[in-house]
Amino acid sequence: MAKVGPLELAVDGIEAIVFDCDGTLVNSMPAHFAAWCDALAYYGAANVFQEDVFYAMGGRPTKDIVVDLNGEYGLRLDPEAVAMKKREAFLERLATIELIDEVVEFARSQRGKLPMAIATGGTRMVIEKTLQAVGISDLFDDVVTADDVAVGKPAPDIFLKAAELLGADPRKCLALEDAPAGIMAAQQAGMRVVAVPAPMDFANY
Question: Which Pfam families match (predicted)?
């Protein structure tokens, strides 16, 4: 796994670039955590999802996380209902989301040079609204979401699908990811992985 500065990413031998969205292109994780808190509190499960656990599970589909929480805490939450409430709470916070400039500038520098896609554990509706809110909808050739594959991250399916759509060999793709599940997924897909730091850590990257 490579770990290099945001403006010095080597693309020699690379056929395509695949980006995660939340926590990689956009600083949306605080809004997602707040939305989780709202949704779980609404269904009587306040304070069961600690922030450090949330970040460790970043990139995974919401319903999968609810299943895990049910098993961990003996709950009977409806994954579909919690996911819907969490989505509503997140969309109410779209105005708080900002670009992670270092990553987006790298993407812009490669526009027209290499095909690029987003591979995200989010749903298509939420991701499309997120990209529209921050004005980067037109920067990527394809967007692959949790709706497009049978198994989400940390399985490699989303990254393999992105490579397929871009017409690239996964082993010759560069993947940018911030979360453990996403990094594992990209590695399993055979991609060269760059671990993106938290936004506040870029100054020391």
Answer: Hydrolase
